[in-house]
From TrEMBL:
InterPro entries: MBL_superfamily_lactonases, Metallo-B-lactamas, RibonucZ/Hydroxyglut_hydro, TAT_signal. This is MBL fold metallo-hydrolase. SUPFAM superfamilies: Metallo-hydrolase/oxidoreductase. Pfam families: Lactamase_B. CDD domains: OPHC2-like_MBL-fold. It comes from Teichococcus vastitatis. It comes from the Bacteria.
Length: 332
């Protein structure tokens, strides 16, 4: 723009301002805060497949110290503060993968759902958003052919049925490990921490609705073309990660291998309170993180910051979480 044009424009603006006597709006016209969040889904290509991450909503853990019982409290606070996170409360996400292979629509885990009434809100009102966010992403529950579970905990399998016990995914088979199926439907395991009772009741209700359409997950075998199960026991007896390969791209869905992107990556040997065998869980986590850092494959982590996509990079005695930018339309 030339100087002459600018002068002419400015002159015009001043003249208009004078004619219309512009006023600043008064404070009484301020809009109310909306407090709502946009629908949470994120889509990208993985080789020949289309992947959509859908959120089941945030899952607030509250005070972090009880959730990480093997962690020295001062060190825990220091790690959170260094990452600019509040030291007195930890919030997890629930990042659910919908994989379209072109032949099948596969859902990985189902969130907290609403099948267990008030217990479905044991982490507060923000969970249970899967179906609303799926529909916002253009996916209907009737379209799901296969639900693949990483494990049979509340925030992963309680979304299989409605409160009335009806199947939410009427056309789906459900893939789960035999070890988790047995463990979490056995009343004999109602001992130990108080949550065991309701965890078992929830798994029984949700898995029994699909009893005639269960598929057993086996270590090293495909549950669908290009989707290979990797046994990673510890968090639960039958916890599995899934390596998803299409074309020349690989992504590893790690489920609950690690619950916190700072605490359990910087300190993989720390224990987590909801682990069935926290010592084994720490060992398996350390081994898998080492492998992921070596292989440099992108990772989808269920509880990491939305949408849970990133890489694991070695850093000192632990690892850094390096998020994949949201503007990547394809991984790899
Ligand atoms: Zn979980």
């Amino acid at each position: 723009m030339t100087l002459l044009n600018r002068r002419a424009l400015l002159g015009g603006a001043i003249a208009m301002g004078g004619a219309l006597s512009l006023r600043v709006p008064d404070a009484g016209a301020a809009a109310p805060f909306r407090n709502s969040l946009p629908p949470a889904w994120h889509r990208f290509r993985l080789g020949e497949y289309e992947a959509t991450i859908v959120s089941d909503g945030r899952l607030p853990l509250g005070q972090p110290e009880p959730a990480f019982p093997a962690s020295p409290p001062a060190e825990l606070r220091g790690l959170l503060e260094a990452a600019f996170l509040p030291p007195d409360t930890a919030t997890l996400e629930q990042n659910i993968l919908v994989l379209n292979t072109g032949r099948q629509l596969i859902l990985f885990d189902t969130g907290m759902g609403e099948s267990m009434g008030a217990d479905s809100k044991m982490f507060g009102p923000t969970t249970g958003q899967l179906l609303a966010n799926m529909r916002a992403a253009g996916i209907e529950p009737e379209q799901i052919d296969l639900v693949v579970l990483t494990h049979a905990h509340n925030d992963h399998c309680w979304g299989l049925t409605t409160a009335a016990g009806q199947r939410v995914f009427p056309n789906a088979q459900v893939a789960v490990s035999e070890a988790d199926l047995k463990y979490w439907t056995d009343d004999g395991n109602k001992r130990g921490p108080a949550f065991m009772n309701v965890f078992i009741e929830g798994a029984k209700k949700n898995l029994s609705a699909y009893r005639d359409r269960l598929v057993m997950v086996r270590d090293g075998q495909e549950v669908a073309p290009g989707v290979v199960a990797i046994a990673t026991p510890g968090h639960t007896v039958g916890h599995h990660c899934y390596a998803i390969t299409s074309g020349n791209q690989v992504m590893v869905n790690t489920g609950d291998l690690a619950h916190h992107h700072i605490l359990l990556l910087k300190r993989p040997a720390w224990e987590f309170s909801y682990d069935t065998d926290s010592k084994l869980s720490a060992q398996i986590r350390s081994r898998m993180l080492d492998r992921l850092a070596t292989d440099r494959h992108p990772v989808l982590s269920y509880h990491f910051p939305w949408p849970g996509l990133g890489h694991v990079a070695r850093a000192g005695k632990g690892y850094d979480w390096v998020p994949v930018p949201m503007n990547m339309s394809s991984l790899g």
